[in-house]
Design goal:
alpha+beta; three-stranded mixed sheet; 11 strands; disordered C terminus
Length: 513
C-alpha cells in the first residue's frame, strides 16, 4: 500500500514537469523573440485611436507561447509514463491540436505583420477548426441539470462554431496589458483540474503546459507590457482553450458536454464577444468593426487603472473557474457553475461597469421597431430619434439635435452618427429615421468619415430619397461635416477615474417638428 501511495505521489510530481519546462522555455524564448521582433520591425505601433501605448511594443509573444507549450508537453511525455489514464484518444487529439494551433499561429503572424481583412482571418480560423474537428473533436450533445440535447449531424458544425467563437473571444479581450494572458492562465488551470478529475491525464498535462507558458508570457506582459501576444498569440491561446475546455467538460468521447461549467470557465471572454457582436449589430456597424466598448476598457474606466482592472478580471475569472471545478463535486453539480456565472455577470452589470449600455441599446432597438405598431402608425409622418451615450462624459445631445434640425427638411430619410474617440474615452451613437420610408423606394446613401486632429473619430451615414436634391444637400452636408469635426477636435477631458456616469439612452418616438 505504501508503495502504491509512493508511486502515486511520484506520478503526480512528474506531471509538474510540463508547466515548469514550459515556463523556463517560455522565459528564454520571449527574450529571443523580443530582440528579433524589435530588430525586424515586428512591433505594434501606437495610432492615437485604439492603440494608445506610448511607444512601439514587440509582437511575437504568441510564437513563444506556442513553442513553450508544446515543448513543455513534449518533455513531460518523455519524462513521464506512457499511460494517459482514461483518455485513450489523447494522442490523436494532441496531434490535431498541435496542427490546428500552428495554422492559427501562422495566420496570426501574417495578420500582425501585414494586416488581413477580417473575413479572410475568419476563413483561416474556420480552416483550423475544421482540422481539429476532422481529427476527432466534436460536441455530440449538450447537457445541463440532467437534461441532454443530442446534436446528431450538427455535432461537427457546432464544434467548429464553438472553436471559432472562443478564438475570437480571446482575440477581442487582448486589448490591455496582462488581460488575455491572465484569463488564459486561469482557464488553463481550471481545465487541468477538471481533466485530471475525469482521468484525462494527457489533457491535464497539456493544460498545465499551457498554464506554464502563459505564466512565462505574463512576466513580460503585466503592466507595463514589454511584449504583446498579437493576434497570433491570442488566437492560438483561444484555440487551445476552446478544444481543451470541451474535453474537460465531458465524461469521454461521444458523451454530452456539460454546458454550465463550460460557460463558467470562460465567462468573461464569452460575455465580451457576445455583447460586442450585439453592440455592433444594433448600432448598424459591421461585427468586425473595432471599438472601445470591451470589458477591459470598461473595467479600466470604472476602476481607474490597468492594475485594478486586471485584478478584478482575474478575480471574476477565478470565480468562474472555481464554479466549474465545484460542478464535479458531489451534491453541487451544475448549480455551482450557474451561481458563479450569475454572480460574475451580476457584479459587472449591477455596478454599471459592463453590459448596461448594451442592454439599453437592445431595449431601445426593440421599442423603435415596435413603435409604428404600438402607435397605430401615428409616427409615420414624422421621425424616430434615438441616441445612446455608451461611454464618456461629454454632452453630445446639442451636437446631435443640431445635426437633425439641419437635415430633417432636406429629403433625408436616415441619419446615423457613430462617435468612437478612444483617446478621450468617448463612444456615442445616434440614429434618426423616417418610418414612412418604403424599402422599395430608390434612395441614395453617403458615408462621411470624421476625423479629429488627423485621427479617426467616427462616421456620419446619411441616406435620402432619390427625388431629393442631392447636389444641394451635399453642399450642406459638407458644412455639417466641418462643423462636426470642429466639435470633435475641441479639447475633450478624459473621463474621471472617480466618477463614471451611467450610460444614457434617449428614445423619442413622437413626430419631430
Amino acid at each position: 500500500m505504501c508503495k502504491d501511495i509512493r508511486d502515486y505521489i511520484m506520478f503526480d510530481r512528474l506531471h509538474l514537469v510540463a508547466p515548469f519546462a514550459a515556463f523556463l522555455i517560455g522565459v528564454c524564448a520571449l527574450r529571443t523573440v523580443r530582440r528579433i521582433a524589435t530588430a525586424v520591425g515586428f512591433v505594434d505601433n501606437p495610432d492615437r485611436w485604439r492603440k494608445l501605448h506610448a511607444a512601439p511594443i514587440p509582437l511575437g509573444g504568441g510564437i513563444a507561447l506556442w513553442l513553450a507549450t508544446w515543448s513543455g508537453w513534449g518533455i513531460s511525455r518523455l519524462c513521464g509514463p506512457a499511460d494517459t489514464g482514461a483518455d485513450g484518444d489523447a494522442g490523436w487529439f494532441a496531434i490535431g491540436l498541435a496542427i490546428a494551433s500552428f495554422v492559427v499561429l501562422g495566420l496570426g503572424v501574417i495578420d500582425d505583420k501585414y494586416g488581413l481583412p477580417a473575413r479572410r482571418k475568419l476563413a483561416g480560423q474556420v480552416v483550423a477548426a475544421v482540422i481539429l474537428v476532422g481529427l476527432g473533436l466534436r460536441i455530440d450533445a449538450w447537457s445541463a441539470f440532467g437534461v441532454e440535447v443530442k446534436l446528431g449531424i450538427l455535432a461537427y458544425p457546432i464544434a467548429v462554431c464553438w472553436i471559432v467563437l472562443v478564438v475570437n473571444a480571446f482575440n477581442l479581450v487582448d486589448g490591455m496589458d496582462g488581460f488575455c494572458g491572465s484569463l488564459g492562465l486561469v482557464a488553463a488551470l481550471g481545465i487541468s483540474f477538471l481533466a485530471y478529475r475525469l482521468g484525462r491525464v494527457g489533457d491535464a498535462i497539456l493544460g498545465l503546459a499551457l498554464a506554464g507558458a502563459s505564466a512565462a508570457f505574463l512576466r513580460d506582459n503585466l503592466p507595463p507590457a514589454r511584449v504583446y501576444l498579437g493576434d497570433a498569440g491570442s488566437m492560438t491561446l483561444g484555440l487551445m482553450i476552446s478544444a481543451l475546455s470541451v474535453r474537460a467538460c465531458s465524461d469521454g468521447s461521444g458523451t454530452a458536454v456539460s454546458l454550465p461549467p463550460l460557460v463558467a470557465l470562460l465567462t468573461l471572454p464569452l460575455l465580451d464577444v457576445v455583447t460586442a457582436i450585439g453592440r455592433r449589430s444594433i448600432t448598424g456597424r459591421s461585427v468586425f468593426t473595432p471599438d472601445r466598448g470591451h470589458i477591459h476598457h470598461c473595467l479600466k474606466s470604472r476602476l481607474g487603472s490597468t492594475v485594478a482592472a486586471l485584478g478584478a478580471a482575474v478575480g471574476l475569472a477565478t470565480l468562474g473557474a472555481g464554479g466549474a471545478a465545484l460542478a464535479k463535486v458531489d451534491g453541487l453539480g451544475d448549480l455551482a457553475s450557474c451561481l458563479a456565472i450569475v454572480i460574475s455577470v451580476g457584479l459587472l452589470v449591477g455596478t454599471k461597469t459592463f453590459g448596461r449600455s448594451e442592454s439599453r441599446l437592445l431595449l431601445f432597438q426593440i421599442r423603435t421597431a415596435l413603435t409604428p405598431f404600438l402607435t397605430g402608425g401615428a409616427v409615420r409622418q414624422g421621425g424616430i430619434k434615438r441616441a445612446c451615450h455608451l461611454h464618456g462624459i461629454r454632452d453630445w445631445a446639442g451636437v446631435w439635435d443640431a445635426l437633425i434640425r439641419e437635415v430633417e427638411d432636406a429629403g433625408v430619410r436616415r441619419v446615423e452618427l457613430a462617435i468612437d474617440m478612444a483617446a478621450a474615452g468617448e463612444v456615442y451613437h445616434g440614429l434618426w429615421i423616417l418610418p414612412a420610408a418604403s424599402g422599395d423606394d430608390q434612395c441614395w446613401s453617403v458615408v462621411h468619415n470624421l476625423y479629429a486632429g488627423g485621427v479617426p473619430a467616427g462616421v456620419l451615414h446619411v441616406a435620402g430619397s432619390i427625388d431629393a436634391s442631392r447636389s444641394a444637400y451635399l453642399a450642406k452636408v459638407e458644412e455639417l461635416v466641418r462643423m462636426l469635426e470642429g466639435q470633435l477636435g475641441s479639447d475633450v477631458p478624459p473621463p474621471s477615474s472617480s466618477v463614471v456616469p451611467s450610460p444614457s439612452c434617449v428614445p423619442m418616438s413622437a413626430p419631430l417638428t
